[in-house]
Amino acid sequence: MAHHQTFEEPDQSTIDPSPDQDNDVSTVYWRPAIFCTLIYLLMGIGYFISAAPQLRLLESIICQQYYEDLDPSASQAGIPEHLCKEEPVQAALAQLLGWQSFFDNIPGLLLALPYGILADKYGRRLIMTLSFVGQFIGMTWVLIVCWLGLPIKAIWLSSLSLIIGGGSNVAASVSMMVITDSTPEIKRSQIFMYFNAVVIIAEIISPPIGSLLMKKSLWVPLLLNSVCGAISITLSWYMPETNRYAVRDKKSDYTKIPSSNDDEELSTPPLEDSGSIMALVYSLKNSMRVIFTQKNIALLALSFLISTFARDSMAFLLQYISNRYSWPIAKTSWLFSFRAAAQLLQFMLILPWIDRKMSKRFEQQPRKKDLYLAQISIVAITIGFAIIGIAPVVGLSMFGIAIYTAGSGFSTFARSLISSLTDPTMMGTLYSTLALMDTLGSLLAGPMMSWAFRWGMNLGGVWLGMPYIISAALCGAMTAVIFLIRLERPGSVAGSAEAGLA
């Protein structure tokens, strides 16, 4: 392909990691980006292949216990699936999964920022590998609990393993660091899109494979997920380290803030504290000061919390469409395939084409290009949620889903923009902050959107779309905030400081 002729992987032996070297900031380092994408393709395939079989395995265990409690002579050969749809069984399953999700998010919430600082200090590869190891241990523990017939709630202990590496949110943030380190600012958003497309491809192709495999045995897809996890750990360990590439953008006019002499004295912990817990706390404090005292970066970070909160309302889409338009769930479920296919089309063809056209127009101002595209995307998301929430017929809801999907590149453009505004040596802290915003958004969205859906059902009529009406209102407010962002003129360091503190 043509871009392989333009962006070539440099010979590793010729790269001088010294910060004094004037590296070519137009070069894409393909090997780490390809490694990272391949790892997430494997992880995605494993996860989506095993999602339905694992759900069915947990359901069958709860179901078996339920009927044994009712009748101790119940068959040990297994209960037919249609008998497991009783409300007590489904309520217990929902409780099990709900608390599992909650516990899984706690390590990431507490450890995302410390691991981000460690990724800046010790490298991306180590933290990514630790994260995958922690997830693999947790996955293995769930299988052990099910295989040995231990109390099913013992699977909640798997969340403890996520202390190692911080869990999936930390792994995702580190992967974004790798791509950011490996790509120039002008091409970064396109690489993010292709990365997202790979995950969507896994989401499209893997569930049918998992469904076929689980007809023979529930354990085959679950073990296949473990194999994918083990291979991902190996690949992450051999992935080229990209931390040294980050300094190639050190001369870029990223947003700076002025510091007093006192601040400069506080910016580095005493030598004797280096490597200690106090040094880590010190770095965390100063990193947060740098990020949250800059208007543009703080507003963009907040947008990730709001967009994740609103996005999680889509978890109720199947139930909402089925209830509002009296569609059977089997007929409604194809909407997920429609949405995934639309997203794939967006990330593989439409958004890259738009990005290339805009890149030519704003060749010297890639930040402005990302800002414009982020603004257009958040407007599309807002309109899409509003249409879904008030649509009187299912066809209009599908149109709203299409509009919402058109804005699915928001996080890609916002991530590319915020990366260009941040000191490259602080990329680990930045992406960990974004992971923290995503985690907070998901934790808040779960109970609040569930409450909004129940409230809407009680009110009836148009209020059935309450989660999407609320999402539209929040995204509308976020749209106004995104339009408040003003970028400095390229090359103006003074302007950068003023813009950051405005």
UniProtKB/TrEMBL annotation:
PROSITE patterns: MFS
Ranges annotated as spanning the membrane: 28-49, 126-150, 156-179, 191-212, 218-238, 297-321, 333-351, 371-391, 397-418, 430-453, 465-485
Record has DNA-binding as a keyword: no
Entry GO MF terms: transmembrane transporter activity
GO terms for cellular component: membrane
Residue segments, region Disordered: 1-22
Keyword entries, A-Z: Membrane, Transmembrane, Transmembrane helix
Compartments where found: Membrane
The name this protein goes by in its record: Major facilitator superfamily (MFS) profile domain-containing protein
Organism: Penicillium vulpinum
Phylogenetic lineage: Eukaryota, Fungi, Dikarya, Ascomycota, Pezizomycotina
